[in-house]
Amino acid sequence: MLKLEEKKDAVAHEKHGPHGVNQKALRRLKNIEGQVKGIHRMVEQEKYCVDILTQISAVRAALKSVGIVILRRHIESCVSDAMQSGGAERVQIIDELMSILAKEEI
Amino acid sequence: MLKLEEKKDAVAHEKHGPHGVNQKALRRLKNIEGQVKGIHRMVEQEKYCVDILTQISAVRAALKSVGIVILRRHIESCVSDAMQSGGAERVQIIDELMSILAKEEI
Amino acid sequence: MLKLEEKKDAVAHEKHGPHGVNQKALRRLKNIEGQVKGIHRMVEQEKYCVDILTQISAVRAALKSVGIVILRRHIESCVSDAMQSGGAERVQIIDELMSILAKEEI
Amino acid sequence: MLKLEEKKDAVAHEKHGPHGVNQKALRRLKNIEGQVKGIHRMVEQEKYCVDILTQISAVRAALKSVGIVILRRHIESCVSDAMQSGGAERVQIIDELMSILAKEEI
Fold first, then answer.
1. Is B94 an 8 Å CB contact of chain C?
2. What is the chain C residue with the closest CA to B101?
């Protein structure tokens, strides 16, 4: 897998560079960091459990939406490139993609 | 809802105080904060998308497990108390609990 | 676990008998059965994948909502009874409940 | 969306015809139908709630795995074709794919 990943990393750098999608993900991750600190504070101050659970649920949803942004970029660049190259690389990148999508937590 | 919540908050403080469950949740939340920072760094450094997605998936699972810890405490204390008191409070706390459990993100 | 389950089964029969919640779950399950047959037909007729996925998603949501109906009944009857009885039974039923809630698929 | 879907339907028929993936999905859907009937019976006979919930959870997981089979086929055929054609069709099929993946229930 490493070889494919390294190649993809290189391809990503060449073709895309820092772009909009990235900045969007970074901003959201900063917010999520703040939200996690907020939950820590709520637990520390023994806030009502249901309010803490609601916050946890919100952060999980926010992480999912960052995942969707990253996944889109992956499909638009790496998956798209590998599909055009065909052969073993195409099979490998689809296998890899499906194993992510089969996870419960994405 | 506020009245019930306030009461529950008070009850939680009286009966439980800072305890084991809390410390466990706090430690995990500290870890999660570190993991979110790690994901931010990975996006910044344009790491391979699939590795970022794997990390996001891990953090979502970690948050879920904190939620389970909090939920257990809620059921053992607030829900249990309300069930014994019976009447309107019992119905209200079950309604509230079911509305959390119906959410996708818990 | 069996002894607790048998007891709960007996308790459920005595206390509740066939009631509204049940009928609601049964009607929904009939619908779900029809929906699953519909998906089978769509796959057989090679319908557009995205439409099939949309249907699968709808059936999964419908099953979740049946689960919520069943879960509510469980909390209102078995969990509530065990909480009032206290002791080992209380711990056991909460352990059992938490192990269901910790699953991804509920 | 309809025009794209119709084209994809046609493309699917031409290129793929009845194949292995399909048969796998059909067999699993037959099993799922049987499992849903089993849950109906369990509710009718007032079986222990936790056992019913465990079955619902199993069927939801089984539906997810059928979804993964269908999704893989979609990515291998329709998405792959659209990516090679490029242009508006490429954007459209990625938008459509992302809107499925963003759903909670897939």
1. yes
2. C68
- Given CB atoms, is B100 within the 8 Å cutoff of chain A? yes
Q: Model confidence over A45-95: pLDDT tens digits? A: 999 999 999 999 999 999 999 999 999 999 998 898 888 887 888 999 999
pLDDT in tens, B14-55: 444 444 558 999 999 999 999 999 999 999 999 999 999 999
Please, what is the Cα angle at B45 between A87 and A3, to 5 degrees? 25
pLDDT digits (tens), chain D, 106 positions: 334 555 554 444 444 444 455 899 999 999 999 999 999 999 999 999 999 999 999 999 999 999 999 999 999 988 988 888 878 889 999 999 999 998 866 5
Cβ count within 10 A of residue C38? 15
In a domain, C35, yes or no: yes
Domain annotation covers residue B89: yes
Please give the tally of structural domains in chain B: 1
The ipTM estimated for the assembled molecules is 0.80
Count of positions (residues) in chain B? 106
| Cβ contact C37–D33 (<8 Å) | yes
D73 belongs to a structural domain: yes
B54 at the C interface (CB within 8 A)? no
- In terms of phi and psi (left: phi > 0; alpha: psi -120 to 50; beta: otherwise), the region of C48 is beta
Is C104 part of the contact surface with chain A (CB cutoff 8 Å)? yes
Size of the B and C interface in Cβ pairs below 8 Å: 39
Alpha-carbon C23 to chain mean position: 13
Distance CA(A29)–CA(C66), nearest Å, equals 35
Q: Identify how many contiguous H helices and E strands chain D contains and give both numbers.
A: 5, 0
**Closest residue by Cα to residue A72 from C92, D79, B100:** D79
> Radius of gyration (Cα) for chain C, nearest Å?
18
Residue A15, domain member (yes or no): no
Alpha-carbon separation of residue C6 from C3, D99, D105 (angstroms): 5, 45, 33
User: Which amino acid is it at D41?
Assistant: R
Q: What CATH number does the domain containing C82 carry?
A: 1.20.58.1000
Contact C98 B76 (CB under 8 A): no
Instruction: Look up the domain containing D89 and give its range.
Output: 21-103
pTM of the shown model: 0.81
CB contact under 8 A, B68 and C102: yes
